[in-house]
Design a protein that fits this description.
With 436 residues, this protein is mainly alpha-helical. It has 20 helices and seven strands.
Length: 436
């Protein structure tokens, strides 16, 4: 019976043309392998069984990321598209998150959303963003529902919500795509629904925009209007091309003074990289760390909980959070509650302070350009190109996955290095030099 079902699934994939023809046999094989694992966990929901299966594959170390994605897609296509399963999202306190009529238990869905995001090691900022978009989506679904009670959620509801954002709210393409990513995660990971061609129909097309870049004199003027720790943070960002969040999350062990390097841990895309530490900033950083050491000693004397550690390091190394090497380079002034661990500890500095400081400095320096902290990162890349640094090396400093992303700065450099002359100027010069 199982083999007959798998054969019918293969025919279904070919008939509906959901995947390339040469992928069908592999997708049937993934579902067969899932059956062999899930038969021992029949007391769990399909979603829990799938997550356990994927974790088992990943732990084996014999499959790549694209194979994991193909395995997950195969099983979802089998149950959602082929078998038309409606209770994929599993149970919460004895009840389904989404019933047969499509009504969703919002509280249960939110809990499971956070659980899935943390299982997949999404950053806390991404978690907050996704939760906020899902909350807005549920509010919209309630507003367009004909009856009171839990909102009815269908793929068409997601399409209409994204159209509402674009047409009524007039959000940018990047904002619309961010909302789509959150809804895709909600539907696939929580509700067990496949949006199908909805994704293709609503993803906004992003235009090409050149980054705002400061000239070297403008950068000097901007930094001269800042002082103290905030200026030091701005110089570290400009000197190494860091993102503002990467600067805020720097730890003492990430500074390599001997090799003039700054190590960025778990940057965008959860990737590590190294970048430049400016020679001129070294003495300032060392003096800053001497002041921060006093704050660290004060926390240890007061038995404050150690700083937050990534993943499960706090369980593997219980005392690592209290070590000097893991302390923040730019710690917050006040203790705060860790929303994940529910522990009062010292967090790193928030990016709002440096953002406001850069805005104020740009106003004082009378810069007409729209300047933000990220402008310093753009300026870092552009100034390196002007100095003849290879673009591949700049790509590594910035942490870009593709060199095409870094190539955007070549368009800026082209105008700065050899600016074209206006034909109006050429015409007037030729008039003035023309013999009378």
């Amino acid at each position: 019976e199982v083999e007959r079902s798998l054969a019918d699934f293969g025919v279904f994939l070919l008939k509906e043309q959901l995947v390339p023809e040469n992928h069908v046999s592999f997708m049937v094989r993934w579902v067969r392998q899932f059956f062999g694992v899930s038969k021992h966990a029949t007391d769990k929901s399909l979603e829990d069984q799938l997550q356990g299966f994927l974790e088992q594959l990943e732990a084996g170390g014999k499959v790549t990321d694209w194979q994991l994605r193909q395995a997950e897609q195969s099983i979802r296509l089998y149950y959602v598209n082929f078998r038309k399963v409606t209770d994929w999202g599993g149970a919460k306190d004895g009840g389904l998150i989404r019933d047969e009529e499509g009504r969703v238990d919002e509280a249960a869905a939110m809990v499971r959303l956070v659980e899935r995001l943390r299982v997949k090691h999404y950053s806390y900022r991404t978690e907050q963003t996704y939760v906020d978009w899902v909350r807005r989506f549920f509010e919209y679904a309630r507003g367009v529902s004909d009856a009171d009670g839990p909102p009815v959620v269908q793929p068409e509801t997601a399409r209409n919500f994204l159209a509402h954002l674009a047409l009524k709210r007039q959000v940018s393409a990047s904002t619309q795509n961010q909302a789509l990513s959150a809804l895709l995660y909600l539907f696939r990971e929580v509700l067990g629904l496949d949006l199908g061609d909805v994704e293709m129909g609503v993803r906004a097309r992003k235009g090409t925009r050149l980054p705002t870049v400061l000239s070297v004199p403008e950068t000097c003027s901007l930094l001269d209007q800042m002082s103290g720790t905030l200026r030091l943070m701005a110089e570290v960002i400009y000197g190494g091309g860091l993102r503002v969040s990467e600067c805020c999350r720097l730890r003492v062990k990430d500074l390599d003074f001997d090799n003039s390097l700054i190590f960025v841990r778990a940057g965008k895309g959860n990737k590590d990289r190294s970048t430049l530490m400016a020679e001129s900033v070294k003495p300032l950083l060392k003096a800053h760390l001497e002041r921060i050491r006093k704050l660290y000693d004060q926390d240890r004397a007061s038995n404050v909980a150690g700083v937050m550690l990534p993943d499960a390091l706090s369980r593997k190394y219980p005392n690592a959070g209290t070590e000097w090497g893991w302390f923040w380079v730019f710690p917050g002034r006040q203790l705060s509650n860790d929303p994940r661990a529910n522990v009062v500890r010292r967090h790193h500095a928030v990016d709002g302070s440096i953002q406001r400081a850069v805005k104020d400095a740009a106003r004082k320096a009378e810069l007409d350009k729209p300047v933000s902290v990220h402008t310093l990162r753009h300026s870092f890349a552009t100034h390196l190109l002007l100095n003849g640094v290879d673009i591949r090396q700049i790509q590594e400093y910035l942490g870009h996955a593709k060199v095409e992303t870094t190539m955007i700065y070549t368009h800026v450099v082209k105008d700065l290095r050899n600016p074209a002359r206006s034909p109006l100027d050429i015409m007037r010069e030729s008039r003035e030099t023309r013999p009378t």
